[in-house]
Amino acid sequence: MPRILVVDDDPDFVEWVRLVLEPNGYEVIAAGNSDEGLRQVRQQRVDLVILDVIMSTVLDGLRMSQEMHNSAAERHIPILMVTSIANTDYAALFPTDEYIHIDGFMSKPIAPGALLSRVKALLG
Q1: CA atoms within 13 A on the CB side of 97
Q2: For 68, 72, 73, 104, which has the most beta carbons within 10 A of its beta carbon?
Q3: Domains of the chain, with CATH numbers?
Q4: Nearest to 47, CA basis, from 77, 72, 69, 73
């Protein structure tokens, strides 16, 4: 069963992801910020990370994706960034002129079918 780590400080979103993915054969574990997320990645086998941007800090998720990319043991784990940053006052802070170490991007809110489809594609 593929294990998916959801890194998001919104427990309602985490529970929504769980309700969408678990009935479709995925195990969902969670972390509330990038520090906790990195601990989970390093302590457990994780097949995919669903990652928010704004958590403890405005670009917390970007920091986590960069740290995973810098680690030979973690850079192979696909990252799906799911965020609502485009709908906030922080949208201008999101870097658009540089490479971001993610494998997919979705803006909240998202449809259950769209999330499931993207997860299936990223896991092959």
Answers
A1: 2
A2: 68
A3: 3-123 (3.40.50.2300)
A4: 77
* pLDDT tens, position by position, 7-42: 999 999 999 999 999 999 999 999 999 999 999 999
Q: Are 52 and 83 in contact (CB under 8 A)?
A: yes
- Grouping H, G, I as helix, E, B as strand and the rest as coil, residue 33 is coil
- Neighbour order of strands in the sheet with 3-7: 27-31, 3-7, 48-51, 79-83, 104-107
| Cβ proximity of 20 and 34 under 8 Å | no
Q: Do 37 and 74 touch, CB atoms closer than 8 A?
A: no
